[in-house]
Design a protein that fits this description.
This protein has about 400 residues and is mainly beta. It is about 5% helix and about 35% strand. Strand 4 and strand 5 form a beta hairpin.
């Protein structure tokens, strides 16, 4: 039996933490890298129950992290949690400690997220596309929370069938034959002058009788897609990179620790590199909450305009140059390049409090969690989809 919770669409919010979803339940665990490493140490992360059991054993008080799980118990949705994780209902926001033990149905829940995060609204303010890489259907992915968009409705009684009156008899099939003279005309319907036009006369046959040995209709595109002789345009535009396969044959970053599709540890995966289409690498999250998918190159600047191979991110600020900086994707790497900006571009790695100056024209590979400062006026953060081991 399908759980009402399975009919909820989930948008994962970028940030420090883990979001897991399986049939009948979901869990959000928030905290820094050290706390998360301790949480996942020696745990089977391929299902919901092991994660919930581990979360129950941790004293979250004062650790800067927390968890909150929503599980369908058939008689309602059970809620449990602790630490710095909040449950957002339609009419109020509650800490994990104050959250109710049960919720009647999933349409009452708006979000489960880190206490320090705000709830994005559905529409242009939602920082993550529901159908993108972080539109989570099943598995375990990095994130600081999840925004729920419910499509579940209480079941209604079936509508009684109403007998329809019998259709009138169909007239026997006929053949029609006519001679038509076509008078050429312009696209707007204006007739061409008789001195320069020439009419064409042809016969038209309308056959309304069934044909003998009539061939079957052509299959739908979805039925014949696998036999297409030409590669779809959307695949031709993707970038092929080398990666590894998890034990369940999902394509991942070469140094990924956890499969982003099924949540299985990649420690047991073959170390043999294989070729595959590069997925979304993560998101650029601006200081105002706006985010951009890292599946293409970007040019960032004051009133930036599109350039060949680059999508513009326009920031209306006089302290930012017109072509202030670029973000380029090279394989699995996300590179920052200062565009010889007037006020400079700085970056900060997640394990340091120091800022480094980017040299104009020289790429800097950003680590997941790195922050970038544009002329001291605006900042953004690189939030990666993958958790990877340092080389």
């Amino acid at each position: 039996m399908t759980s009402p919770l399975d009919e909820v669409r989930c948008a994962v919010l970028p940030g420090d933490g883990i979001v897991g979803r399986w049939p009948g339940g979901l869990i959000v665990v928030v905290g820094g890298p050290v706390l998360l490493d301790r949480f996942f140490d020696g745990i089977d992360a391929s299902g919901l129950e092991p994660l919930v059991e581990r979360a129950r054993t941790i004293d979250w008080a004062g650790k800067g992290g927390g968890y909150l799980a929503v599980i369908d118990r058939m008689d309602g949705l059970a809620v449990e949690g602790g630490g710095d994780c909040d449950l957002v209902l339609r009419d109020r926001r509650l800490s994990a400690a104050d959250a109710p033990a049960a919720v009647a149905d999933p349409s009452l829940i708006e979000a489960v997220l880190d206490r320090r995060r705000t709830v994005p609204t559905v529409g242009s303010d939602l920082p993550v596309a529901l159908d993108g890489a972080l539109g989570l259907e099943r598995g375990l992915v990095p994130g600081a929370g999840v925004r729920l968009i419910s499509t579940w409705r209480a079941p209604s009684l079936p509508t009684p069938a109403i007998a329809e009156p019998p259709s009138p008899p169909i007239a026997p099939p006929t053949k029609a034959h006519a001679i038509v003279t076509e008078q050429p005309s312009l696209p707007d319907g204006t007739q061409i002058d008789a001195s320069v036009r020439s009419a064409r006369t042809f016969e038209v046959f309308t056959i309304t009788e069934p044909l003998e040995n009539e061939p079957a209709p052509l299959p739908m595109v979805s039925e014949s897609f696998g036999r297409a002789t030409e590669e779809p345009a959307e695949l031709r535009q993707q970038v092929v990179v080398q990666g590894i396969m998890c034990p369940n044959d999902h394509f991942n970053h070469p140094r990924s620790r956890i499969c982003v599709t099924c949540g299985t540890s990649t420690d047991e995966a073959s170390l043999e590199l294989v070729r595959g289409f590069r997925p979304i690498l993560g998101y650029l999250v601006l200081d105002d909450g706006t985010s951009y998918q890292l599946n293409q190159n970007y040019i960032i600047g004051r009133l930036a305009i599109a350039d060949e191979g680059f999508v513009p991110i326009s920031l209306d600020d006089d302290g930012i140059s017109r072509r202030h900086a670029r973000i380029e994707l090279h394989g699995w790497d996300v590179a920052l390049i200062d565009g010889d900006s007037m006020n400079g571009t700085r970056y900060q790695t997640p394990d340091s409090e120091l800022w480094s100056e980017a040299t104009a024209g020289r790429p800097v590979v950003l680590q997941p969690g790195s922050r970038v400062d544009l002329g001291g006026r605006r900042t953004f953060t690189f939030e990666a989809v993958y958790r990877i081991d340092a080389q």
